[in-house]
Amino acid sequence: MRLTDISPTPALTPLDGRYRKQTAPLVEYLSEPALNRERMRVEVEWMILLANGFEGNGYEPIVQGVKPLTDEEQAYLRAIPETFDDEGIERHAAHEAITHHDVKAVEYYIDDELDCAAEVLGHPTQLTELKTLVHFACTSEDINNLSYARCVKNAMEQVWLPSAKAITAHLMGKAEEFAELPMLSLTHGQPATPTTLGKELAVYVYRINRQIRHIESQEYLGKINGATGTFGAHLAAYPDVDWVAVSREFVTNRMGLTWNPLTTQIESHDWQAELYGTVSHANRIMHNLCVDVWMYISRGVFAQVPVKGATGSSTMPHKVNPIRFENAEANFELSCALLDTLSATLVESRWQRDLTDSTTQRNIGSALGYSLLALDNLLGGLQSIHPDQATMQAELDANWEVLGEPIQTAMRACELAGLPGMERPYEKVKELMRGHRINQDDVQRFIDSLQFDEQTAARLKALTPASYVGVAADLISFAE
């Protein structure tokens, strides 16, 4: 049995197979049918603008020989993309099989719908005579660049950003919950100045939120200006029309994008490189989070909640493996690889046009799909762990040498104030604590051996590894 003989054909990639459920929301915006539906939206809105004008031209038709479309006719046109279903997908594919051109197939699909207009509306309509208006003065890239920009914008705003914000919301909740829970730090893998679990989680909230704000302020550029960006065909047909103003109106107010006035045949895709670079950066921050949490689990700082019936290891029944974090790592890496390629490829085009961007952009869904899958795994992993406070306290109790820092810093302050016996503070503390396991008694005897003033000595002797966390809890408020 050949797998290719099975109907429907099994998915080639895990995004549309094994992980279909997690990535399905992106199908609405970044699949091939979604792109074709958006192309139809662009085409019909262009028709409506040409027929009905806009405020800047007194709502007069921009092209001659066309009467302003009625509300009913406009509604009919706008319904074409909104009713694009499985049967419509097949009809579009049938046109493309003949044209070998996806945008031309969209044009012919709309022509078919215009042919049916009078029958559907139940009375004669000028729509049946307006095939010439479809794709008027447009090059395919006029339609494509606007469609991709709207698809990506909606995918980011409706799917990716809410998923990323779910991560930061969860982390922020845990940061506040564990704001004062002390934890041993490890710098270079060695015991270091204690912190709190909440503060360490808040670090990631702050980092991710910066990238989210960049994405929320991202420009999505678009153009509609003809085959080489000169409005040549437009002026050849209607030399008295202010086509620059028409273009600006359409891109800005009808498409909801930022107008790009200077392009070749293609919109230059710089906004895409900017966006994908930011998403890739966010991916890498969250990859770092996955690695940190994985190591906290290994160290025992976090305990995992076993899933009833789940198998951690095929041979070691006791194991609860941190697979969600490992899966998230891998998928963030795949997403970054694709996003980095998109960013590098899309900003280059030979002279006024080549087609490298065409096939490249078809992978935007995959690039964001792997990121979305990683976000899903990361959130699931974060929801399945909790701090093991006994382990965290045991680590702190076993590392009293971390108090060498506050003691030698206090000695420096006393030396600067002229207190005798405080010279060479770093070296004295180093002799006591470096490479040695010490306990509370050792620390207090050392403090007593020095000539601290009474207030400083009491303050230092009151310190423990668990209490030496500075203002960690207060810093959490800066995360959002």
From TrEMBL:
Q: Which GO terms describe its biological process?
A: IMP biosynthetic process
- Gene Ontology molecular functions: N6-(1,2-dicarboxyethyl)AMP AMP-lyase (fumarate-forming) activity
Q: What's in the keyword line of the UniProt record? A: Lyase, Purine biosynthesis
Supply the EC number(s): 4.3.2.2
Q: Where is the Fumarate lyase N-terminal domain?
A: 17-328
Specify the pathway. Answer: Purine metabolism; IMP biosynthesis via de novo pathway; 5-amino-1-(5-phospho-D-ribosyl)imidazole-4-carboxamide from 5-amino-1-(5-phospho-D-ribosyl)imidazole-4-carboxylate: step 2/2; Purine metabolism; AMP biosynthesis via de novo pathway; AMP from IMP: step 2/2
| All copies of domain Adenylosuccinate lyase PurB C-terminal, residue ranges | 349-469
Q: What does this protein do?
A: Catalyzes two reactions in de novo purine nucleotide biosynthesis. Catalyzes the breakdown of 5-aminoimidazole- (N-succinylocarboxamide) ribotide (SAICAR or 2-[5-amino-1-(5-phospho-beta-D-ribosyl)imidazole-4-carboxamido]succinate) to 5-aminoimidazole-4-carboxamide ribotide (AICAR or 5-amino-1-(5-phospho-beta-D-ribosyl)imidazole-4-carboxamide) and fumarate, and of adenylosuccinate (ADS or N(6)-(1,2-dicarboxyethyl)-AMP) to adenosine monophosphate (AMP) and fumarate.
Protein name (record): Lyase
